[in-house]
Amino acid sequence: xxxxxxxxxxxxxxxxxxxxxxxxxxxxxxxxxxENLKEANPKxxxxxxxxxxxxxxxxxxxxxxxxxxxxxxxxxxADELLSLMQIGPDGLEENISxxxxxxxxxxxxxxxxxxxxxxxxxxxxxxxxxxxxxDLHTSLRETWDGELPTVLDATAGGGVIPFESIRxxxxxxxxxxxxxxxxxxxxxxxxxxxxxxxxxELYQWRDQIQKKASEExxxxxxxxxxxxEVLASACTYHIQCESCAGxxxxxxxxxxxxxxxxxxxxxxxxYENGDVSYECVELAKNSDSSFDPSDGPVSRSDVECPxxxxxxxxxxxxxxxxxxxxxxxxxxxxxxxxRGGSGYRAGEEMDQQALKRAEERIESDFDxxxxxxxxxxxxxRITDPATYGMEEWRDLYSPRQLVSHYEYCQAFHDTADEIRxxxxxxxxxxxxxxxxxxxSKMVDYNSRLSSWHTGKGYPNPIFVGSNxxxxxxxxxxxxxxxxMGYNDMSRKVIDSYEELAAMITGQDAADLYCGxxxxxxxxxGENEVQAAVVDPPYYDSIMxxxxxxxxxxxxxxxxxxxxxxxxxxxxxxxSDEAVANPSRFEGLEGEKSKKELAKDDYExxxxxxxxxxxxxxxxxxxxxxxxxxxxxxxxxxxxxxLIESGFTITATHPITSEMPVRAGKRETxxxxxxxxxxxxxxxxxxxxxxxxxxxxxxKSQTREAAKGAARDLLDxxxxxxxxxxIIAAFGPTLRVFAxxxxxxxxxxxxxPPRDALTAARDAVAEVLSERYLETKGFDDLDGLTRWYVxxxxxxxxxxxxxxxxxxxxxxxxVNIDDVKRDTKIWGKSSGDVQLKTHSHRVQDIVxxxxxxxxxxxxxxxxxxxxxxxxxxxxxxxxIHVYETKGPEAAWEWLSDRxxxxxxxxxxxxxxxxxxxxxxxxxxxxxxxxxxxxxxxYLDIDISxxxxxxxxEDDEDNQAALNEFE
Length: 965
Prior knowledge:
Layout: E1 7-8, H1 29-39, H2 47-51, H3 60-71, H4 78-84, H5 96-105, H6 114-118, H7 130-143, E2 151-153, H8 160-167, E3 172-175, H9 179-194, H10 199-217, E4 229-240, E5 247-249, E6 255-260, E7 263-272, E8 275-283, E9 298-299, E10 302-304, E11 311-312, H11 314-322, E12 327-336, E13 342-346, H12 349-364, H13 366-369, H14 399-422, H15 425-443, E14 452-453, E15 458-459, E16 474-477, H16 486-504, E17 511-513, H17 521-524, E18 529-534, H18 544-559, H19 594-616, E19 617-627, H20 632-644, E20 648-656, E21 673-680, E22 693-694, H21 695-716, H22 722-728, H23 730-739, E23 743-744, H24 753-772, H25 783-795, E24 799-801, H26 802-811, H27 816-823, E25 826-829, E26 832-835, H28 845-849, H29 871-885, H30 887-896, H31 903-915, H32 921-929, H33 932-938, H34 952-961
Parallel strand pairs: 2-3, 2-18, 3-17, 18-19, 22-23
Antiparallel strand pairs: 1-20, 4-5, 4-12, 4-16, 6-7, 7-8, 9-10, 10-11, 12-13, 14-15, 19-21, 20-21, 24-26, 25-26
């Protein structure tokens, strides 16, 4: 079976056309996908992933493939590409992809490390040799008119694309709007290649900063015994019960370190006379203790007073926090014991006194009073900290946390002049910047939004998800301690930097810019770049600027005089950021909703970015986009922007880039695979008038393109989920659409790309049903039943993103919004669509037959009906009758309606059995109905259905889920 899948244009017809590139031909996608998954192991990630937090970094193998594929000629063999990507063992020159796949298939038999099993180290640890680079550069000069191609990443983010470009010795340009990743880029792409190793210098100055700061913090982390050192404190909030005036801790669970179910270290509260004190307890497994650490006063955001039992609702608690009507409380402490290991104790009065000393220090020190004064600018979409009273960024820290961060910042500035005096300008700048990376990284683990990790007994980072989640229990980390403090964070940063430097020392640094990607051509020049490889912002998935302000404000406190250009503004630039953020359009709604306005804004900004990339690229230049998003809106805006900028779409490739998980479990916007979408700038501008194409003429072409791509993907052996198969088919569909652009309907109104994507989704759904459903006559079912079955088939879950469910409905002729109220076939769950079972839809037949009033609005399906509008209604009614009245009544009910001869009913039953998980309640009852007397009556042949295994795709998913074990 082929390891490659591509959709590409035909060969150039004249010498005036551009040279076809490797990315426009066949690529070793399976082998690269395997390496992407190997790299995702959190214990062995590339150093750029550890140096500082940032969002959505792409795997090294995918980035290397995008870069090399965009600059090497078509016809480059898979073996040559993989070898250059450092995939495959030494000495293996042929069939490398097949070797990697065989190693993957038999990975469960390995004895030893992954590197030993595969016979080569993880590719990101290896750079091409001098001989490999020399051969590559010779080949590239032949392709690109005697010069090495320049690679541009206009939205560089965490920097993997430009970093890998430098490793291949290519002239590289990187731009990023946000100063936070821009600082990371300076470290990776400028200091690492130009300054090189700084290990001794960094540790020398790190130690001085540590000594100065720790001396100022000594009295803030008291210990009970000499020699112990406080590592971290579990903190919460005390509020006063409005009913009894008792003290109420906002703690959901009392665990400090939960080793297993019922076993570990916990804090036991003692409530007496309206007060609360704490005791540290060790709980053994199967303990007969009446104390349950999982039973704290907080339940579902409401708080029950442990003294009088009165419940304070979430909104009241939130208002108390916002109005500063609370007290910080340290209730648990983790410490380092000189006799070995770490231990835990309860919070005591000496800890509260330390908090008080921190508060007094802030009140008496003007510099502390004005430290991090910037206003919080965050939309409610990502949980606005101001909702809980955190109106300035300094408010994200408890008094002791704020003093700790301040003292390290002061120690940094006290040391900065010595650093400048001892080193040349660039080296001093590098040292100061890298040490600030460590300080910024500390923010992630020492704030009121850094939760306590009960499974490990230490802090979680702020961004467990892409939002600011309020923490009722937060971690106050002792930055002066060796573990998880400044020493530890700086060591990790220095180790990462040294690895990065070792990889590219001696290579030319990248040209770096921090600005709007829509205006980059004014800096890099027009027609100057050969290849642009970008991983653009993901529509509405991540509000980068809003989230990064927590780092920006701290970095600015350190580096405003070192990098005045990066930290000139009060906060990060949000107005020029290319994200779909509806909160920016609050109060501006008119004919369009704020969501539609946000979509238009994103589309306009992406169009401006692509138009500017078009300017920067030389005629015949290539643009490759790495896109990992599955919302139709995101693809619609991306494709519209790309097409209107003048690019010709020439190829698309899907690569497995994330560990596949079930659709109902993963974040709704993120796909498991990265789509490489490639376009070319025409060699000659065509200014002639373009004749519009009728949608009716294009629609069938888009469907056939999508079907062909889906069948090829399913046959390719690539490890793609069904949802990613749909997304991967978008590329060929867009190529057909772009080739016929502009497209109009019969009235002459322009047709947007999303109509083509909807047609593609429907076409691929047909292919998936043909491939995975053995049930005959499925296409003859009513649209609602088909939608219900296809939803289960594609998402393998009762929950799916609303936009995808709606698009799937359109494809089968159903407006899911129109049918929601009358059918109750689905409901909303956290913004997603959740399919409903018979228990949520069918009226109680016993009550109906007894003449009782049953709400038809709440339960729209009447099981006493002789005929049903939809096949799914008949099936759900049969299940209800069987479960409510038993097999005999069900047999009578089925026979009275002649369902034995109702092909729609029979088809609906078998289709549901094919797609439902065997353990699902509906599947279990259907199996019961198809056995015994009811089964004899219906006589439905289900011999073709495997009732124990979900099917081929599930086996693929299961293999993928085991990738990291």
